[in-house]
Amino acid sequence: MSQPEPPTIASDGLPARPTGAWVHDKKYYLERYLSIFTRGVGPKWNGKLSYVDLFSGPGRSIIRQTAEEVEGSPFVALNCEFAKYVFVDVPDVIDSLQVRLGRHAKLPHVSLIRGDCNEVIDAVRAAAPADHLTLAFVDPTGLQIRFRTIQRLVQDRKVDLLMTIQFGMGIRMNLRQYSQSESNALTSFMGNDSWRTDVEDGGSPSLIGHRILSRYMAQLRQLGYETVQNREIAVRSDQNNLLLYFIVLASRHPRGQDFWRKITQIGPSGQRHLNW
Ligand SMILES: C[S@@+](CC[C@H](N)C(=O)[O-])C[C@H]1O[C@@H](n2cnc3c(N)ncnc32)[C@H](O)[C@@H]1O
What we know:
Layout: E1 8-9, E2 15-19, H1 23-41, E3 49-53, E4 60-63, E5 69-71, H2 73-78, E6 84-89, H3 91-101, E7 110-114, H4 121-127, E8 133-138, H5 147-154, E9 158-165, H6 167-172, H7 175-180, H8 185-190, H9 195-200, H10 205-222, E10 226-227, E11 233-236, E12 243-251, H11 254-263
Parallel strand pairs: 2-4, 3-6, 3-8, 6-7, 8-9
Antiparallel strand pairs: 1-2, 4-5, 9-12, 10-12, 11-12
The structure holds S-adenosylmethionine.
């Protein structure tokens, strides 16, 4: 897999993530979902809602082509009414986020966890109260999230998952490489190597990638999750229209799926949703 790009310095003097204009699409769906979720279920849960961001980033992105600065997911979440926020990333990135948070009014409700989210998942569980309804945002750059980590995160807890699934760089582009290697990121991502059957069944990398994605969704269903069919949001590169990732909402409760259906009816540029 490609090496991560070094951070760029933003106008506040702190490191930010270099990215593409598609980051606006991700932010659009995240903002809308967190807003409908907190307003919709907050009263019923007496405000006992937690937000867990397993790949939080430093709190700001910079669009490469335009140098526009875009608020990162931790700040999007802090604008919504959660009782607890847990932000996880590698140490350098959390250091930047911590400085950027400064004396934010919600700081007493924030836990910052430094490390590989797969390794620190028990610390994440300890930071998010067990009796809360949790919304976990899982937004890696590739296949860093192990299926075992998802299983542990949701074990005996009420957790909804909002995930970006890196179809482009994560699954499709690297299939050849994955087929050659025995122990690899795709096996950890899936939690098993049954995806090899999808490769053996043949076809284009894109077709194989879609089969693997369906397998992933089926595994989420085995954990009791439903995803809203045909409402995976495809996010494409603004430069060559290449499929980068899908945004998927997985919930164990029909309410979560209703929320997702609602907020995905209209896309970021005002277009009505069509089944794709
Ligand atoms: C796509 S960015 C997250 C962007 C952020 N969610 C936002 O919307 O502003 C992915 C982040 O994952 C972090 N990362 C990569 N591997 C990780 C791992 N194993 N555990 C925790 N964080 C990781 C990277 O440092 C990077 O900041």
